[in-house]
Amino acid sequence: MTAILLALGASLFWGVADFVGPVKGRTLGPLRVLLYVQAAGLAAIALLVLLSGHGWPGPRVLLAVPAALSGTLGLYAYYRGMLVGAISIVAPVAGASAVIPVGIGIATGDRPSAPQLAGIAAALVGVALASREPGETDRTLAAGVGLALVAAVGFGFYFPPMHVAGDADPWWASLIFRMTSTTVIGLAVLARRPPIAIRPLDLAVVAAVGIGDMLGNFFFAASSGHGLVSVTAVLASLYPVVTIALARAVLAERVARSQQLGIVLTLAGVALISIG
Question: pTM of the entire structure?
Answer without folding.
Answer: 0.88
